[in-house]
């Protein structure tokens, strides 16, 4: 690879890491500066660099910006309506007694598809605490399973913003990314549960006293490293009024979100079936579009590239377009989940909150697309593709390694997968990497070793009550375990789709 182009790539990625870690600048500006640095060092004309940045920014947001905004809005409505809580309790009932780690991992995976990890964990952690209080032990295992279950779908399954952004930048089929991401999540969930069940008892006596008392009441630890917990009083769990029906634990207070109902009205609890509609309907529509298009391509003998859809596929293509599907999901969330007496101003306020939380992600996503366009136009992408083709390294490992390095360096999984997707985008066609494989490589690599520079690390460890080496062994260890578990899955996926 030409030394000048290699230097341009290295300095561009280094600029992102240094600016995010060592300055007060945000990842959005860091990605734009990285594009400028890469273009200048690569020898691209200065005026062309600016054109590449604006073109890449606009084209990326044009394809994925609306979808990210709608996905975040649906997640907000699931949170405030109590639908997320209802789905969690339904899964607890479905898994039954002595399978609580499986239930919490599954709950985390489900809730984190539309809801950000940080807020989703805050919403669902009281459920883990209530279960531990009823069981009188096992809180660390439950908390880790919940948190890492959220990590799986947050990193692997759209419409979470990170995978959506990587899908848009790499031009992959969204429905296929959803399907494969869900398959990866299901296969990796046992890794989460096994690790949580192994490390949880080892760390149970390392919970800080304030959290221990908040979870168990007046509890004392006895009996070595695995710590048997005994309560000073034999009272039943205050959240349920009974000691055996964990699924009846209530963690959602409708008045806190919806306010007091008008005279003669009362809060109507949202059931799990209704609560799943704004999430399930859009996913089914998007996947149906992918499936019918694949059938149509097979019938026409056009398995790749552009093709003319048959008439019968047009309704599926329209309704399964991510924009249309998520608009339907947002409408369902407003009119199915929320009480009719909910004032317009409150609903619009929730949409405004969602827009505020999505705004920075949209800017970072667009900046990632801008960086990728500079890599294409400056020739860095082509040179990197040729260099990789001359080695025995599987091409799909490039985005995996880039995402892993950026994640460890600066902490944000979203920034890591967007950076990896931006660097990989020029390589996809030249190296024959399937875009879906490239997306999953970016998202899987970004799960590695969550630690001090990751905001979610602090959310999980503070709520779990772990500090120092215990926090690293518990949370950093479990995220690295699922990262390692994803690597053989990527090899298999590349064999199937490559």
Explained architecture:
It contains 22 helices and two strands. Strands 1-2 form a two-stranded antiparallel sheet. With 498 residues, the protein is an all-alpha fold. The two termini are 24 Å apart.
Q: What is the structure about, briefly put?
A:
The chain is an all-alpha fold and 498 residues long.
Amino-to-carboxy terminus distance: 24 Å
Share of helix, binned: over 70%
Q: Could you say which overall geometry the principal axes of the C-alpha atoms support?
A: globular
The stretches of 5 or more residues where confidence is low (pLDDT under 50) are 219-244
Helix and strand string, N-terminal first? HHHHHHHHHHEEHHHHHHHHHHHH
Helix count, DSSP H or I runs of 4 or more residues: 22
Strand content: under 5%
Q: What is the assembly state of the chains in this entry?
A: single chain
* Structural class estimated from helices and strands: mainly alpha
The largest pleated sheet is described as: 2 strands, antiparallel
Instruction: Kindly state the number of beta strands.
Output: 2
What order do the strands of the largest sheet run in, or round the barrel if closed? Answer: 1-2
Mean pLDDT: 84
Cα gyration radius (Å): 23 Å
What is the fold's blueprint, element by element?
Elements lengths: L2 H20 L4 H16 L3 H36 L1 H13 L4 H12 L5 H19 L3 H18 L4 H10 L3 H30 L5 H8 L2 E4 L5 E4 L22 H5 L13 H29 L13 H6 L2 H16 L6 H35 L1 H10 L7 H14 L2 H12 L3 H4 L3 H11 L9 H10 L3 H30 L1
Question: What attributes does this structure have?
Answer:
498 residues, mainly alpha
């Amino acid at each position: 690879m030409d030394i000048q182009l290699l230097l341009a790539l290295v300095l561009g990625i280094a600029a992102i890491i240094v600016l995010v870690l060592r300055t007060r600048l945000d990842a959005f500006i860091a990605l734009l500066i990285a594009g400028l640095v890469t273009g200048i060092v690569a020898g691209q004309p200065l005026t062309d660099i600016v054109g590449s940045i604006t073109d890449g920014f606009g084209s990326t947001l044009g394809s994925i910006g609306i979808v990210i905004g709608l996905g975040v809005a649906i997640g907000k409505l699931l949170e405030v309506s109590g639908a997320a809580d209802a789905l969690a309790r339904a899964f607890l009932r479905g898994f039954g007694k002595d399978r609580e780690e499986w239930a919490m991992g599954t709950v985390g995976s489900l809730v984190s598809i539309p809801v950000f990890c940080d807020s989703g964990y805050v919403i669902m952690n009281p459920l883990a605490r209530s279960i531990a209080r009823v069981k009188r032990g096992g809180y660390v295992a439950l908390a880790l399973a919940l948190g890492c279950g959220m990590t799986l779908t947050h990193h692997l399954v759209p419409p979470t913003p990170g995978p959506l952004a990587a899908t848009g930048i790499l031009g992959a089929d969204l429905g296929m990314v959803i399907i494969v991401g869900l398959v990866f999540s299901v296969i990796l969930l046992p890794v989460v549960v096994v690790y949580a069940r192994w490390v949880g008892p080892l760390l149970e006596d390392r919970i800080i006293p304030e959290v221990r008392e908040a979870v168990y009441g007046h509890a004392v630890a006895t009996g070595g490293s695995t710590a048997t917990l005994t309560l000073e009083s034999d009272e039943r769990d205050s959240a349920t009024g009974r000691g055996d029906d964990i699924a009846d634990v209530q963690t959602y207070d409708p008045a806190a979100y919806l306010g007091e109902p008008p005279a003669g009205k009362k809060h109507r609890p949202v059931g799990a079936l209704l609560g799943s509609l704004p999430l399930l309907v859009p996913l089914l529509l998007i996947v149906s579009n992918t499936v019918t298009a694949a059938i149509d391509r097979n019938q026409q003998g056009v398995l790749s590239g552009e093709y003319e859809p048959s008439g019968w596929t047009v309704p599926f293509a329209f309704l399964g377009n991510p924009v249309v599907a998520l608009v339907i999901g947002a409408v369902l969330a407003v009119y199915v989940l929320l009480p009719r007496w909910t004032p317009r101003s409150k609903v619009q306020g929730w949409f405004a909150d969602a827009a505020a939380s999505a705004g920075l992600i949209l800017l970072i996503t667009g900046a990632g697309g801008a960086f990728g366009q500079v890599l294409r136009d400056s020739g860095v992408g082509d040179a990197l593709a040729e260099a990789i083709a001359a080695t025995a390294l599987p091409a799909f490992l490039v985005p995996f390694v880039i995402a892993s390095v950026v994640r460890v360096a600066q902490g944000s999984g979203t920034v890591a997968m967007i950076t990896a997707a931006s660097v990989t985008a020029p390589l996809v066609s030249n190296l024959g990497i399937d875009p879906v494989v490239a997306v999953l490589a970016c998202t899987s690599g970004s799960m590695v070793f969550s630690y001090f520079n990751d905001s979610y690390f602090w959310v999980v460890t503070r709520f779990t009550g772990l500090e120092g080496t215990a926090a690293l062994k518990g949370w950093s260890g479990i995220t690295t375990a699922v990262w390692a578990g994803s690597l053989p899955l990527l090899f298999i996926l590349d064999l199937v789709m490559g």
